[in-house]
């Protein structure tokens, strides 16, 4: 529904629909924040148990990626390292 339609109709239904949309978005935003808080707590637990959180975040990011793309990138990386040599 366009802004013009909302203004032209002045319809209570349209404002009710808009309110519903806004409330649904707000609930999802609250859910998103709750999930982020839970994840932060899990990372704190991992750190307290001696895990390297920076590496753990890399593990999580790596597992999200497509396996074939990851393997291809790793192969190219290895090729580049061989070409330029590793440094200290």
Poorly predicted runs of 5 or more residues: none
**Helix share bin:** over 70%
Q: Would you list the SSEs in sequence order as H and E?
A: HHHH
* Distance between the first and last residues' Cα: 61 Å
Please indicate the count of domains.
Answer: 2
Strand content: under 5%
Q: What is the residue-mean pLDDT, rounded to a whole number?
A: 90
Helix-and-strand structural type = mainly alpha
Molecular shape: elongated
Number of β-strand runs:
0
Rg over CA atoms: 24 Å
What profile does the largest beta sheet have? Answer: none
Query: How many DSSP H or I helices?
Result: 4
Give the topology, please.
Elements: H1 3-9, H2 12-48, H3 53-64, H4 67-84
How would you portray this structure in words?
The chain is 84% helix and 0% strand. It is mainly α. The protein has 2 domains: 51 residues; 37 residues. The mean pLDDT is 90. InterPro entries: GapR-like_DNA-bd (IPR046367). Pfam families: GapR_DNA-bd.
Give a short synopsis of this structure.
The protein has four helices and no strands. By secondary structure, it is an all-alpha fold.
How would you describe this structure in keywords?
84% helix, 4 helices, 88 residues, mainly alpha, single chain, 2 domains
């Amino acid at each position: 529904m366009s802004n013009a339609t909302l203004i032209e109709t002045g319809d209570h239904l349209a404002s009710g629909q808009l309110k519903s949309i806004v409330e649904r978005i707000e609930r999802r935003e609250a859910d998103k924040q709750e999930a982020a808080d839970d994840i932060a707590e899990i990372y704190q637990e991992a750190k307290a148990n001696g895990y390297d959180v920076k590496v753990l975040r890399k593990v999580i990011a790596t597992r999200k990626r497509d396996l074939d793309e990851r393997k291809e990138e790793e192969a190219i990386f290895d090729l580049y390292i061989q070409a330029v040599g590793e440094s200290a």
